[in-house]
Amino acid sequence: MKKRRYLLAVVAALALPLLVSCGKKAESAETSKATESAVSMAAAETSSSASMSTTGESKEEQETMGYQTIDQDTAREMMKQDDGHIILDVRTKEEYDSGHIPGAVLLPNEEINGTRPEILKDLDQPIFIYCRSGHRAGLAAEKLSKLGYRKVYNFGGVMTWKGELVK
């Protein structure tokens, strides 16, 4: 999807000088307007793809799927305001043991399948998910939302976590 949008933007940008210089004077204003419109549409599509998640969904798609990708500062603030949440580390046990966010519960991404995990009983409980870089957290968030969890937040990876880690 990103490639198609990028290609559209490149084609529109390359076509602009060609269309403007090759037409008659009467047609050139009309062509110029059409080209400008195509370029702005391509630019809008390209900029909207900047809000894509690690799994390729836009923010709007994530919201309808039941999860959102948020930054770590937002996650930290939301965690302060809600004490009924769970922090889910979806890395391997070895990664978890090497250092994890205080209060985080281990549930490796590979263990999230077609059944609801026992540790996640409440479908409306806020679930904050992280991994090492954010990729597995996005995959886990998608799986959990498909299982019916409604407040799932992917906040990226522990590599960029500014807070404390415990072993």
From TrEMBL:
SUPFAM superfamilies: Rhodanese/Cell cycle control phosphatase (SSF52821). Pfam families: Rhodanese. GO terms for molecular function: thiosulfate-cyanide sulfurtransferase activity. Gene3D superfamilies: Rhodanese-like domain. Residues 1-26 form the signal peptide. Residues 81-167 form the Rhodanese domain. Residues 27-66 are annotated as: Disordered. Residues 34-55 have a biased composition (Low complexity). Keywords: Signal. This is Rhodanese domain-containing protein. It comes from Stomatobaculum longum.
